Task: inverse folding
């Protein structure tokens, strides 16, 4: 597998570590109403699509960046790769 | 001349070098061949047709093909540990001193005792094993399996470690051309001339593909000569890499291809070099020009040595200058078979007959040969090799070789590796690549169904032009080579019907047309079921000559079209790849890197015993003269440390420098307890949870400056914690001003523990730094200098429970530092201690470590529930409050001592109370760590016990069902030594 | 007690290997600093680098160089400074840079090897997964990748390559190179 790193270009998947669904970016807050339920869903509930899946990969043997990789789970085709930091910011996470 | 005479079947010409004779042995008999021969061609040159026995029925088998598709001529190559089974003689390049033996027989090849299986064949048909060995059940392990194992399998293994070397490598290119036949050579040339980075690989040692086997002319040059010219130009281009003896065996995701290059297999000695190199090839585009493979026709006893593929016969005649027989008959359903007859005649080999299933006019005149149009070969004769054939009409013809052509199958294998399905092409009666190719792959030439040479060039030219266009390169405008057109004109004919004799489909797995019919009758119509039920298409050749034939026969039996019946698809590898090649050089010590601590060399000098901790080698203990048991060393190290001072290399603990304006805030979020309020110059124990509330890791974190913390992690979790912190930083809180960098390797860190630790360090730490108890109390930290100005970090932390420090110097001084500490500690009889003593002291002190942090442990279990802040939002605190993790009967970490202090506790023992039975229902927890405590004078343990903290003083049983042991233990505080912590504050 | 002094030792004791067309030298003289820009302070960090080292902040995968210092762009907001400074100058520079950027001394974290010779790429293709072809990895290029399970920073100079890998596994890393050389040459 090759992941097209947005800053470094194509890199072998062997340089990366997989984490899981990119929804892990959206960690709830302890202050949320019903925080217990929100955390339970955040921690344990995942979609398992046959098709496009946004997922987190870590470039451990490279620049140590976390990436959001959009991968087709049926064909393995990767259609989009972004820095997770940028994705997190654009989806409203900050401090 | 006597050597020449021994090669009785050798003809004139060919692509062999008669100036380089080579000696080799087969089944102990010496023979001679030439450079350029394969083992198969050299055996045929010497009249050897009977090469081995078949897998199931142990029938005599010979050489069937001239390439990697060979199902029959499998031999064991090499001697002793070098022995390699299932080597195809047809692709084994001859070298001087080659040693081969036949396989699949007990006793001599010609008198195999297992040949009796052939007479039992009515009982051994498809599904035999599934049906027969079902009962009685108990017989399976004791009787059936050992017998089957003994008689099954192709060839035999040496049973020794593979002594050869293997390696891996990485290649990058714009265009990978797979196969160096006419289409591949032409494509690579055009791409190479255009400036593209090209890798072209072929499994053969001679580029040219079928051109070397045929009598074609290209631009008025003999095809083989044209191939030599093109290969020479390719080798001269710096942007082209022409790899021979290199099989592209798999097409993987995103343009990655696997190739196995045989580096030294063709040489008498590897000379210290890897035998094979497994390449990972990264491509922008790939062009499959893998050619095609001929298939057979099923008729009675079509497996005798001497029955060969017609194209292979041409290969032996044209390329190797070998006549596979003295009187050759041809059986064909297409024009291509006639080429064989033509080339044999041209070389002066007698063609006794051509039998063509088509009722058309004979395509050529062959004086002296019996021509039978619309005929069928129904049976053959000859005990250990072909002597004659019988036609359906009853006519018999003498022949010691029968060249069979059932048509050509494009080599679509790699097009299927990403789930692509080939489609049926009626015109050539074969599967051609489907539409769903691996991304970036194109197919040209015979592999794409272009079966005449002029079509091959046209197809290659068009395809490579398109690819160069995609790569934004302009194609060289050289005209496509001119060549003759050779029509195939096939009329499908798969098998002879109405015969009582067995008609073989899969020669490697001994599958006959009857087996296929039986499979259908028993409901296994689907091609996938057919394969599993009959084993057709399994083993080393993966059905290269049999799959399509078997599928077509199934279609006829089922009265369906071939596309209705199914498609054969393929998985990697194209041809077998040795597991050793997959491992490459990663064997033994090279399986993974070794990490050495800064004191490693010094510890070696002390005779330390080392233990692997992850990739690290750590000193486990330091034996002294006279010590005969490890416990003696460990007890001494513990006692000496507790009584005076000991030193331990703790460099392996993960060290992460955390800097930035928000460093404290960040730590508050990743640790369960608070760090933002920690004063500069202070250290705090930190407990890190996973988001699910379970303990992830623990360690100390020191605040070295306003915006600078140094976190330590356990050795095992260093990498994982760093990854987790980066996740938090980048994905959860991207705008926090915090920076992480690993400093594990930067600092050599030593624990100096024991009542004299301060005195020792006073000789090391530069005098301007006051390390008295008042100035530098327990849990202090500072940037200091040592030994006259060397920058260092000093932490007053203790894992042993003694007054202790950890001192860190830049790693380059690590070796010198351990020697300095030993020198400075001499007056106090300082000892170095290893991981065992470290472990003893931490258990004596009741500290949790890896044995306790097993991925299910909560802070509550450890008795650290109060450390988890209820106020702030940190990773894991919400889910740590889940009901199920906070029940009244939760397990707690406590200490255990044997009631009879002579008893030795066993880690992993489970607790039951009240003398109850050791059952799951009665289980109340387990012992996680056990040591012999020299301080207590007996065995001690820590472990998890239901409501353990409320049960101090209680007696219960620690049971070890594995050894049927039951030891009475008393529940005690986990703090065996200095429970009030007076020593570490001293 | 007399004065105890500490002696520095390099990871591989100055190892040096020569093959036909390929050589390996440990470069124990090279000092390393990691410099990161504080959040939203990229311009400040670039200015500091310019002021104290005379170097521009390199783009990721690229480097900037002066006579005795190279600055390698390894991450979007982090660079590595390779220099031939002595201990004192190195410490002084680190201190100056630390005023407005995030600095970590990395001199002891890595083993530094310089490899050169006509066969260099033949040796590296057995262990290095990234494309080192001139067109994609020209002089001055920098990459961080994995070789034989080890994290490696590779920096291309005019006549040689600088390779950095973790100091604790320096022996294994050296072995991966000598093994390749013996396999290839």
Result:
């Amino acid at each position: 597998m090759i992941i097209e790193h947005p800053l470094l270009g194509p890199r072998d998947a062997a340089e990366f570590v997989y984490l899981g669904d990119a929804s892990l970016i959206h960690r709830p807050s302890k202050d949320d109403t019903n925080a217990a339920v929100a955390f339970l869903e955040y921690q344990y509930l995942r979609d398992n699509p046959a098709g496009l899946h946004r997922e987190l990969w870590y470039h451990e043997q490279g620049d140590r960046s976390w990436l959001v990789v959009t991968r087709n789970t049926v064909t393995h085709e990767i259609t989009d790769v972004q820095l997770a930091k940028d994705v997190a910011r654009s989806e409203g996470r900050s401090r | 001349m006597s050597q020449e005479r021994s090669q009785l079947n050798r003809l004139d010409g060919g692509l062999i070098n008669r100036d380089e004779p080579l000696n080799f042995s087969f089944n102990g008999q010496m023979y001679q061949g030439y450079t350029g021969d394969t083992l198969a061609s050299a055996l045929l040159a010497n009249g050897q047709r009977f090469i081995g026995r078949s897998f199931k029925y142990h029938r005599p088998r010979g050489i069937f093909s001239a390439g990697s598709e060979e199902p029959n001529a499998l031999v064991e190559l090499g001697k002793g540990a070098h022995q390699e089974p299932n080597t195809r003689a047809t692709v084994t390049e001859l070298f001087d001193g080659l040693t081969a033996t036949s396989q699949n027989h007990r006793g001599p090849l010609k008198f195999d005792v297992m040949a009796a299986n052939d007479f039992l064949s009515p009982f051994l048909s498809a599904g035999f094993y599934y049906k027969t060995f079902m009962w009685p059940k108990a017989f399976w392990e004791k009787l059936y399996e050992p017998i089957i194992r003994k008689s099954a399998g192709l060839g035999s293994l040496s049973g020794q470690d593979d002594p050869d070397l293997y390696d891996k490598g990485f290649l990058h290119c714009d265009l990978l051309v797979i196969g160096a036949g006419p289409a591949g050579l032409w494509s690579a040339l055009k791409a190479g001339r255009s400036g593209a980075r090209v890798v072209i690989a072929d499994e053969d040692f001679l580029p040219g593909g079928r051109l070397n086997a045929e009598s074609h002319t290209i631009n008025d040059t003999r095809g083989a000569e044209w191939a030599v010219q093109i290969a020479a130009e390719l080798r001269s281009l710096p942007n082209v890499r022409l790899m021979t003896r290199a099989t592209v065996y798999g097409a993987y995701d995103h343009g990655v291809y696997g190739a196995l290059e045989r580096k030294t297999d063709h040489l008498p000695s590897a000379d210290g070099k890897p035998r094979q190199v497994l390449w990972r090839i990264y491509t922008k585009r790939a062009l499959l020009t893998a050619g095609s493979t001929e298939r057979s026709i099923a008729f009675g006893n079509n497996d005798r040595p001497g029955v060969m593929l017609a194209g292979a016969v041409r290969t032996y005649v044209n390329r190797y200058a070998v006549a596979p027989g003295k009187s050759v008959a041809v059986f064909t359903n297409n024009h291509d078979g006639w080429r064989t007859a033509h080339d044999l005649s041209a070389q002066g080999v007698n063609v006794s007959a051509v039998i063509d299933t088509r009722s058309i006019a004979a395509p050529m005149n062959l004086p002296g040969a019996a021509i039978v149009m619309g005929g069928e070969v129904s049976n053959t004769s000859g005990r250990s090799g072909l002597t004659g054939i019988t036609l359906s009409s009853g006519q018999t013809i003498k022949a010691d070789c029968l060249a069979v052509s059932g048509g050509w199958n494009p080599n679509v294998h790699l097009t299927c590796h990403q789930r692509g399905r080939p489609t049926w092409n009626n015109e050539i009666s074969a599967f051609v690549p489907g539409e769903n190719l691996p991304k970036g792959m194109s197919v040209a030439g015979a592999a794409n169904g272009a079966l005449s040479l002029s079509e091959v060039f046209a197809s290659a030219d068009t395809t490579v032009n398109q690819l160069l266009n995609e790569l934004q390169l302009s194609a060289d405008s050289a005209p496509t080579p001119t060549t003759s057109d050779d029509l195939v004109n096939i009329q499908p004919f798969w098998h002879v019907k109405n015969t009582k004799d067995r008609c073989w489909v899969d020669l490697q797995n001994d599958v006959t047309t009857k087996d296929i019919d039986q499979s259908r009758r028993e409901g296994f119509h689907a091609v996938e079921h057919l394969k599993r039920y009959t084993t057709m298409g399994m083993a080393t050749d993966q059905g290269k000559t049999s799959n399509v034939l078997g599928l077509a026969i199934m279609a006829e039996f089922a009265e369906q079209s071939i596309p209705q019946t199914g498609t054969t698809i393929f998985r990697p590898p194209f041809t077998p790849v040795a597991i050793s090649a997959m491992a490459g050089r990663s064997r033994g010590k090279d399986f993974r890197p070794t990490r050495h601590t800064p004191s490693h060399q010094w510890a070696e000098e002390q005779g330390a015993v080392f233990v692997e901790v992850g990739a690290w080698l750590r000193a486990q203990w330091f034996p002294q003269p006279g010590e005969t048991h490890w416990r003696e060393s460990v007890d001494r190290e513990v006692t000496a440390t507790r009584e005076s001072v000991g030193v331990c290399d703790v460099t392996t603990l993960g060290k992460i420098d955390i800097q930035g304006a928000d460093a404290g805030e960040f730590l508050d979020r990743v640790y369960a307890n608070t760090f933002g309020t920690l004063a500069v110059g202070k250290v705090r124990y930190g407990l890190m949870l996973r988001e699910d509330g379970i303990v992830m890791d623990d360690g100390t974190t020191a605040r070295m400056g306003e915006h600078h913390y140094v976190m330590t992690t356990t050795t095992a979790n260093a990498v994982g914690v760093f990854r987790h912190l980066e996740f938090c930083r980048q994905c959860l809180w991207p705008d926090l001003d915090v920076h992480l960098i690993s400093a594990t390797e930067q600092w050599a860190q030593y624990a100096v523990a024991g009542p004299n630790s301060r005195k020792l360090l006073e000789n090391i730490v530069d005098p301007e730094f006051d390390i008295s108890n008042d100035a530098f109390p327990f849990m202090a930290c500072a940037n200091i200098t040592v030994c006259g100005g060397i920058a260092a970090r000093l932490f007053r932390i203790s894992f042993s429970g003694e007054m202790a420090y950890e001192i860190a110097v830049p790693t380059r001084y690590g070796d010198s530092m351990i020697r300095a500490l030993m020198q400075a500690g001499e007056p106090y009889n300082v000892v170095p201690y290893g991981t065992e003593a470290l472990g003893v002291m931490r258990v004596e002190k009741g500290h949790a470590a890896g044995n306790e942090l097993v991925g299910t442990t909560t802070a509550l279990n450890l008795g650290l529930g109060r450390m988890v802040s209820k106020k702030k939002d940190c990773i894991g605190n919400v889910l740590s409050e889940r009901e199920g993790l906070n029940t009244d009967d939760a397990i707690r970490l406590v200490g255990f001592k044997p009631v009879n202090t002579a008893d030795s506790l066993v880690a992993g023992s489970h607790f039951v109370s009240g003398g109850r039975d050791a059952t799951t229902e009665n289980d109340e927890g387990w012992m996680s760590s056990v040591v012999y405590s020299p301080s207590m004078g007996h065995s001690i343990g820590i472990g998890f016990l239901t409501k353990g903290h409320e049960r101090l003083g209680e007696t219960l049983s620690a049971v070890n069902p594995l050894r049927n042991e039951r030891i009475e233990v008393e529940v005690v505080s986990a703090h065996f030594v200095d429970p009030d912590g007076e020593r570490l504050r001293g | 007690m007399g004065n105890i002094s500490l002696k520095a030792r390099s990871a591989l004791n100055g190892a040096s290997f020569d093959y036909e067309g390929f050589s390996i030298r440990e470069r124990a003289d090279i000092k390393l600093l990691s410099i990161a820009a504080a959040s939203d302070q990229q311009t400040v960090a670039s200015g500091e680098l310019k002021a104290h080292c005379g170097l521009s902040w390199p783009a990721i995968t690229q480097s900037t160089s002066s006579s005795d210092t190279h600055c390698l762009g390894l991450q979007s907001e982090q660079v590595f400074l390779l220099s031939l400074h002595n201990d004192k100058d190195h410490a002084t520079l680190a201190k100056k840079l630390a005023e407005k950027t995030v600095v970590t001394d990395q001199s002891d974290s890595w083993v530094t090897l310089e490899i050169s010779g006509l066969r260099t790429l033949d040796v590296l293709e057995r262990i290095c997964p990234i494309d080192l072809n001139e067109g994609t990895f020209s002089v001055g290029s920098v990459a961080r990748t994995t070789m034989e399970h080890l994290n490696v920073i590779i920096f291309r100079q005019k006549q040689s390559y600088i390779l950095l890998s973790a100091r604790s596994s320096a022996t294994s890393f050296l072995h991966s190179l000598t093994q390749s050389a013996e396999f290839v040459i």
Summary: The interface with chain B takes residues 1-2, 10, 12, 17, 19, 24-25, 27-31, 35-36, 39-40, 42-43, 56, 58, 60, 64-66, 75-78, 83-85, 88-89, 93-95 of chain A (CB under 8 Å). The first strand of chain A starts at residue 2 and ends at 5. The helical segments of chain A are 35-44, 84-90. The first helix of chain A runs from residue 35 to 44.
